[in-house]
Amino acid sequence: MRSDARPPLALTLAAAAGLLFLHLPIVLIFLYAFTIEERTYQFPPPGYTLQWFAVTWNRPDVWPPLYLSLRVAAVATALALVLGTLAAGAMARTRFFGREQISLLIILPIALPGIITGMSLRSAYAMMEIPFSTLTIVLGHATFCIVIVYNNAVARLRRLSGNLVEASADLGANGFQTFRHVILPNLGSALLAGGMLAFALSFDEVIVTTFTAGQQSTLPIWMLNELVRPRQRPVTNVVAIVVFATTFFPILLAYYLTRGGSETAGSGK
Amino acid sequence: MSMTPAVEFQSVARHFGTVRAVDGVDLTVAEGEFFAMLGPSGSGKTTCLRLISGFERPTAGSIRIFGQDVSRVPPHRRNVNTVFQDYALFPHLTVRENVAYGLMVKGVDRRTRMARADEMLALVKLPDYGDRRPGQLSGGQRQRVALARALVNEPRVLLLDEPLGALDLKLREAMQDELKALQRRLGITFVFVTHDQSEALSMADRLAVFNDGRVAQVGTPAEVYNTPRTRFVAGFVGSSNILPPAFSTALGGPAAWVSLRPESVRLVPWDRSVHRGAVRDLRFLGAGTRVQIDMPQGELAALVPAGLPLPAPGDSVGIVLAPNALHPMEGEA
Amino acid sequence: MTAAPTAAAAPAPAARAPAVLPDRGPGDRLSRTFWRRPGLLTALLIAPPLLWLGVVYLGSLAALLAQSFFSIDPFSGLTVREFTLATYAELLKPANLDIILRTVTMAAAVTAGCALIGFPVAYFAARYARGRWKALFYLGILLPLWSSYLVKVYAWKLILAKEGIVSWAVEGIGASAILNAVLALPVIGGNSLSTSYLGTWIVFVYVWLPYMILPMQAALERVPVSLLEASADLGATRWQTFRTVVLPLAMPGVAAGSIFTFSLTLGDYIIPQIVGTSARFIGLMVYQLQGTAGNIPLAAAFAVVPIVIMLVYLWLAKRRGAFDAL
Asked: Which pTM value belongs to this model?
């Protein structure tokens, strides 16, 4: 639907208000990271300082959760890249019996609310008496990251006309050469985008993680604790900025990597 | 030169579920031949091409390329190359790298393969385009690149899938001449698929006309044009009159379905012939005018070459047929 | 075979290479096998992800279901691994039914809020935005969709705080009386926005809004402009066209978006913890029961509720064609 007519003023205002509503709250997070008031969220802030960045840097309780989050996100993304790409490869190749069911199964972990994935894993760990560890977190994260990689890869594979693969074979390349010289270069940016999104999703995931982490803290769990029982509030803001930036730039990159196709990254979180 | 055919189909069938895309085809393409597979869409010609390249495997029958059974040979081990309908150039490679691709996967060193690619680009008259991307080329240029990319491998058979289909008329005519010249010069067997009968007739040494997954007729362009074997061939190739047995006998022909080329029908004043009709319609075609005539047995088309006098609609005319103009065809009477 | 020295000298005619080339190594042999049996490669590709999802995900879902049929020993606090319906009987106690009803009501209210606020954005993006603006709109919806959930919730804690920006703004424009009147309303009101259902609702709407806008926009993009012109041509006013053409055609998008907003609200346990009354929601019950209370069977039974509700919801949505807009 495209129209050359000028939009009605009321619609323009409502749309602008909607977009502002989506973005303004984030700006406040940044603002409060510089306030000199550490006990309340007084607005406007009585004064500004850069000290909280140094304070955060020196807080020993911030670093282990950050490392854990990075580790979990890296491993989950790696697993999701392998499994999601394999699934996309199979699904884009041919129609086969049970294809629809498998596609549903891949999507299910993000189609159902996170609490179900979390509680299910929690139930399974309890039944099998598996102790909580980094691995138990990774299991959950990789499961819902598969679909992110899958969505990106399968869209690109569909666009990569079957003819290119045939042309490669026609010119004498075997399956492995075709994968290396034709499929991978064309799929690369889609996989990078999928990996970025998976990383971002895993890095700030909290709903599933609380059920699978036990006593360990990822950065979002650390933040959640600060939200419920705040100590130095601006420190939480600094961490929030870090979390925001760690997810923001991969998302932006993913968008630019896949722009222009029907498969623009992230349209299906 | 050996007598082994370049491509040989023996009772080849390819079924997709209940669809019989190719249904018992026997074909022989001689070495060095420019062979056309002509037919409407869905007639099985493209599937036959894919059977030669190896992208389809026959449900039944056998295919030989230069005498070797290829039923167990995948596409990448057949010394056969294809110019795809949409060219299928690799978008992530430069034009030169595209052309050198086949040599790269064969393990030819970089310097040699780039040099060979440049030679090939010169051969298809794109000497300065090596560093561009396929996306920066016009349709005609892409087609030449696709051709170079296939020919650099020195295939025993070159397959062309509707190679000129995406080009505009002028370019298409120029490319027809060029392809033909290239094929003569290289001596490589060309098999090309087209739905354009004039293209097939003008370029091919021999052609096969496909219908419903079967070969309706194989022969030289002249044979197929002048003596179509079935009503389908007569209708698809050229613009023949296809006349039922009663019409044929009325014109002094055999009691069978016959084809009659419009250019074999000469118009004379109505009292000079026993076969008469009324002009219904005229259609100007440039090199001649097609005249539709209502005869007692039905409708008939005649082609009056440019420069000769034309009747007016409603005129009564007589017709005279060239000797042996009525060509009987197979099929139910 | 030697390379031709010049372009003019074409490769020598085809008396040379064989028509069929031998395999070069294991790569070729394997490729040949896959070519002859295409199903084999598909099976090899799909096996690892299928195994993972089958074992980890479906296995866990089965464990969830199994746990919900176990019960907890009231004395030892340990899970009794015997089939019983006692846990579900407990789930259906009035206090718990209240929680379910409250959660579903909130999910419905959030869905309605998202649709109302999101529609102008989706409509504008689909119909009027183009070029750079189009990309900007798209990013403007995409970035909040993907940016950190927790950061977004945290932002609202700042906004709704007693001494925060909302109070400041309301005082600044002298609208305290209006805010107080709203907060004095029964049920949705409360002491402050951050301790009322209204506050919870606002945060939910904020967090899930992009999930509603994107499918609505996708549905609206598919409405051909000629349809609107046809309607205008037939004498409809702008409002009539909107009501009789645009809205009905946007409905599948709304339904698709509502699947997300509804489902996500049903399962959330963090927002009600941070902003709102102390009243419980399904998600919060699951969280507390499996954690501090250590009652995994009842937690599992509570987690089954959103699944059942969503299955019914999906079934209804499917009948209205919501999946076409996904």
From this structure: 0.82
